[in-house]
């Protein structure tokens, strides 16, 4: 594992990459470096990921593969997030199964992108999560929005109403006024729906409303 301590450029976004295949790590490092995001730490397993997140200096973003030799990262995402809450985790995986994507987001991943994504999209994902946002590749997010919601975990009436209002173009402030709640509450609803359903923008919210809410 490469130690990130002392390597972060002032004010810059830095990245750590965790993948058990050295060739994949090298390719990811090259793509990110060319995009202006220096890779300051690398590891090939969950133990290395933990070391990165508990180092004296942590990266801005952790890019994480799911299938690692010492465990499936999906089961360890909540614990990894606890180690360094300020470091968003961007999952970079070959797995494109809808349940896996949804579970990763629910477990705390800030984004999900496939390993065959073009370099500009990987760079955009890193930039978005580094800025505190969330990123799911558009075609994956659309699939999440159109797929059946997990059985046994229904949306509340408030969540359904919020989705309909956002789909109609309402702002968070307008949704809050309509629901008679605070804007902070509406933002929490939006974050919950993003994590559970993968609804990252208004177009995906509208698609979900058309497909699931009549």
UniProtKB/TrEMBL annotation:
The modification 4-aspartylphosphate is found at residue 65. Residues 148-213 form the HTH luxR-type domain. The keyword S-adenosyl-L-methionine does not apply. Keywords: DNA-binding, Phosphoprotein, Transcription, Transcription regulation. The keyword DNA-binding applies. InterPro entries: CheY-like_superfamily, NreC/VraR/RcsB-like_REC, Sig_transdc_resp-reg_C-effctor, Sig_transdc_resp-reg_receiver, Tscrpt_reg_LuxR_C, WalR-like, WH-like_DNA-bd_sf. This is Two component transcriptional regulator, LuxR family. It comes from Cryptosporangium aurantiacum.
